[in-house]
Design a protein that fits this description.
By secondary structure, the chain is an alpha+beta fold. Helix content is 29%, strand content 28%. A seven-stranded mixed β-sheet has the order 3-9-10-16-13-12-11. Strands 20-19-21-22-23 form a five-stranded mixed β-sheet, sandwiched between helices. It has a three-stranded antiparallel β-sheet with strand order 5-4-6, with no helix packed on it. The protein is globular. Bound molecules: glycyl-adenosine-5'-phosphate (GAP).
């Protein structure tokens, strides 16, 4: 864990937020490589949901909504709260289920009886800071989807069953943020809400759970590091009739990365009740004839971008004692290989002149870099020995290293080194873009 956190900082994936002021509430910023990786994860999820399914459409709803949304959804009630005990001396709060005695784990002071603390982040909108101006930063993105259920249905002429997918920020005032980016207060969710007939909810639950597990496997997560856990009723979210968590084996144990929920008609019926707007679906041609009017049931898949990114990083991280190539002296140390899937890896290609003290090689390598840059996320690197540069790229998961050597000047070609096999092949520069596109597909 310490090594992964250190690599993430050293190589520009993840930085502590507001670091020069000592950080802020376990917030994290994503650096140049982190933001590429995050974008790749989001794109892979979006493609999976929108391109691979006929009847899933996208949405981007506002973060700030009418506070009545959160009353109706149940998030302002006791259900969306942590049970905390407060130390009477130092006033630090602890999750009730994480302290074993009535003593403060920090100062030894006496703890109060556990009380519920709501996780919603409060804010004010408009010019006056009074109770009328209070609203909340959304704690889950899906409420924006429910708010637009009718808009999407009508504007897109959707028929049940159909899904709405959304990626966006969510906020929770987590009392105990911890484990690096595992539990943070500001994060992004990728959520899909599947609206279906109540009688089909069970079937679709199984179907979506299966699809979600396969998504991780397709993107290279090792099967032995994934498992599912059926959540018993007393641990379930307040809206869930059924909940299965997809868990990943993190360095600190098995933990949830994604939740698949059967939310039943909890959301649409509550929003109908609170808003006065009838959100029932009307089926004009049910098999039994006539018209059928009902609240669709919702199957939800919900994953955090940061949490899945963390799992992808942990799964890809390898240390190779003695180096990957045993022949040269420089590789006697431990080498790091970040074996991210080609879709997730932040940098696809590095362009390297064999040596940097030959202006012709540098010039040619820079030309290749300029040629590829509009098409792929690339890096140019000329510092250090070629072996050291390969290792620097392996450490950040770069899929291909392209080396421009003396032969390149005569043949107008270069070598492509594959990150995983370390095999090299010579290819003509004129064929490069097409070839790389094919390899990275
Ligand atoms: N709409 C359903 C929902 O929000 P959840 O189980 O509370 O369900 C779903 O959250 C996913 O969102 C989690 O599996 C996790 O990946 C991510 N998530 C939730 N809270 C988080 C936090 N504090 N930090 C990072 N990710 C979080």
């Amino acid at each position: 864990m310490v090594k992964i956190i250190s690599l993430a900082k050293r190589r520009g994936f993840i930085f502590p937020s507001s670091e020069i002021y000592g950080g802020f509430g376990s917030g994290y910023d994503f650096g140049p490589l982190g933001v590429e990786m995050k974008n790749n994860i989001k794109q892979a999820w979006w493609d999976e949901m929108i391109k691979n399914h006929e009847n899933v459409v996208g949405l981007d709803a506002a973060i700030l909504m009418n506070p009545k949304v959160w009353e109706a959804s149940g998030h302002l009630a006791a259900g969306f709260a942590d049970e905390l005990a407060e130390c009477k001396s130092c006033h630090k709060r602890f999750k009730a289920d994480e302290v074993e005695t009535r003593k403060c784990p920090d100062c030894g002071g006496e703890l109060t009886q556990p009380r519920k603390f709501n996780l919603m982040m409060k804010t004010f909108v408009g010019p006056v800071e009074d109770e009328a101006a209070v609203t909340y930063l959304r704690a889950e993105t899906c409420q924006g989807i429910y708010m637009n259920f009718e808009n999407v249905l009508n504007s897109m002429r959707m028929k049940i069953p159909f899904g709405v997918a959304q990626i966006g920020k969510a906020f929770r005032n987590e009392i105990t943020p911890k484990d690096f980016i595992y539990r943070i207060r500001e994060f992004e969710q990728m959520e899909m809400q599947w609206f279906c007939h109540p009688k089909d909810a069970g079937k679709y639950f199984d179907c979506w759970l299966n699809e979600r597990i396969n998504w991780y496997l397709k993107l290279g997560i090792k099967k032995e590091n994934l498992r599912i856990r059926e959540i018993p009723e007393k641990e379930r979210a307040h809206y869930a009739k059924r909940q299965i968590d997809i868990e990943y084996k993190f360095p600190f144990g098995w933990h949830e990365i994604e939740g698949v929920h059967n939310r039943g008609d909890w959301d649409l019926s509550n929003h109908s009740k609170h808003s006065g707007k009838d959100l029932r679906y009307v089926d004009e041609n049910p098999p039994a004839g006539g018209k059928e009017r009902y609240f669709p049931h919702i199957i939800e898949t919900s994953v955090g971008v940061e949490r899945s990114l963390f799992a992808f990083l942990c799964d890809a991280y390898q240390e190779i004692a003695g180096g990957r190539t045993k022949t040269t002296k420089a590789t006697k140390e431990v080498e790091i290989l970040l074996k991210l899937d080609k879709k997730i890896a932040p940098i696809k290609i590095a362009v390297l002149p064999l040596v940097r003290n030959k202006p012709e090689l540098v010039k040619k390598a820079k030309e290749v870099y300029q040629l590829l840059k509009p098409h792929f996320v690339c890096q140019y690197d000329e510092l250090g020995s070629i072996g050291r540069r390969y290792r620097r790229q392996d450490e950040i998961a770069t899929i291909f290293c392209l080396t421009v050597d003396f032969e390149s000047l005569k043949q107008d070609d270069l070598t492509i080194r594959d990150r995983d096999t370390m095999e090299q092949e010579r290819v003509k520069i004129k064929n490069l873009i097409e070839l790389l596109r094919e390899k990275l597909r």
